[in-house]
Q: What sequence folds into this?
């Protein structure tokens, strides 16, 4: 029984833990009959036919390793039907290589974009099972993605460290957290670190409200104010612009990112020095947290169960603490963002955190 496995899109913690879970489960169910093929660098390896037969020992000590032992890459869904080679599209190449490899099934560890491609391959008749990975936690159909909990820890530790120097110098720090369309990471890390302001892409912010809140905190004697912002935040005004108008506005103002925009808006308006700090890719790097190791191993083990039951076309998910499966066609192309009346937002406001609204 030949089973392929690949990791696609931006990496995150616990990708290896999830593969460990899959492989342990497959060996448990099929013993030596299970032949695992590691496909290199995500869908790129499937398109180009780059893979390797894996040994059981390859997965033995990877539970706590960061990154992915298979490598990853981005293959944007919108380009997946473009011609790639000899008149064949990328999708056609992937199907051809799957068949040439004699795969019985393929396990894909990926985020939102990767799920659209996974669904397409499933519709084309390949036996696909997916696992939800991303630090953004924005995959529809699952309460949690693996990588998310570790990234919260990473961002929290970063902001905690920043906080001590912010207090010493009585500075206001704008901290950019990853997340272009979804603010799950920012709201959680922001609450964990006791941020004063948390801005997320789902709530276009009113700069007047933000300023008033900071003034209030300063007048109460607060030192070292932390403003946690997601990469993709927009002002109220910007949220009304078309994509083109938005790009033109940012270019004209020579603003490259939203945190910089906010810094400019606050500079000289606040009775404290305003600084900006970008956490960056360390949020995705390094060892997974214990929570993520457990979650990813459980999801992986369940993927092996689905293969044993020959149930394909599913993403393995966690719902209310229970590992479940959902149909790829029901979740592909949907994004799980924070609704503006989400409980966590209400509670953040009860904690006197300003959300810019
Ligand atoms: O999707 C995960 C993520 O880390 C996002 O939070 C972030 O916006 C993006 O990937 C960054 O991607 P890249 O590493 O390709 O710059």
A:
């Amino acid at each position: 029984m030949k089973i392929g496995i690949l990791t696609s899109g931006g990496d995150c913690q616990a990708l290896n833990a999830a593969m460990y879970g899959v492989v342990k489960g497959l060996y448990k169910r099929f013993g030596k009959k299970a032949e695992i093929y590691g496909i290199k660098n995500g869908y790129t390896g499937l398109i180009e036919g780059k893979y390797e037969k894996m040994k059981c020992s390859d997965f033995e000590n990877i539970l706590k390793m960061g990154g992915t032992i298979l490598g990853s890459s981005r293959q944007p869904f919108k380009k997946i039907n473009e011609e790639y080679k000899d008149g064949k599209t990328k999708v056609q190449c992937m199907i051809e290589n799957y068949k040439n490899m004699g795969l019985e099934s393929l396990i894909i560890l990926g985020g939102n974009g990767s799920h659209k491609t996974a669904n397409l391959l499933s519709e084309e008749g390949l036996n696909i099972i997916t696992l939800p990975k991303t630090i953004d936690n924005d995959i529809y159909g699952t309460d949690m993605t693996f990588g998310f909990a570790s990234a919260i820890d990473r961002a929290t530790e970063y902001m905690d460290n920043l906080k001590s120097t912010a207090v010493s110098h009585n500075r206001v720090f704008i901290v950019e957290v990853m997340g272009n369309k979804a603010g799950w990471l920012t709201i959680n890390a922001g609450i964990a670190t006791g941020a004063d302001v948390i801005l997320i892409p789902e709530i276009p912010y009113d700069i007047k409200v933000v300023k008033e809140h900071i003034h209030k905190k300063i007048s109460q004697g607060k030192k070292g104010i932390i403003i946690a912002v997601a990469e993709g935040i927009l002002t109220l005004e910007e949220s009304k612009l078309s994509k083109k108008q938005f790009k033109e506005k940012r270019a004209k103002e020579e603003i490259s990112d939203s945190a910089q925009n906010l810094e400019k808006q606050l500079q000289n308006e606040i009775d404290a020095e305003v600084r900006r700090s970008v956490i960056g890719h360390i949020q995705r790097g390094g060892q997974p947290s214990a929570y993520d190791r457990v979650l990813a191993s459980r999801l992986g083990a369940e993927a092996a169960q689905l293969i044993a039951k020959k149930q394909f076309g599913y993403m393995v998910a966690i719902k209310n603490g229970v590992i479940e499966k959902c149909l790829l066609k029901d979740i592909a192309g949907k994004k799980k963002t924070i609704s503006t009346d989400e409980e966590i937002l209400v509670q953040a406001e009860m904690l006197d955190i300003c959300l810019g609204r």
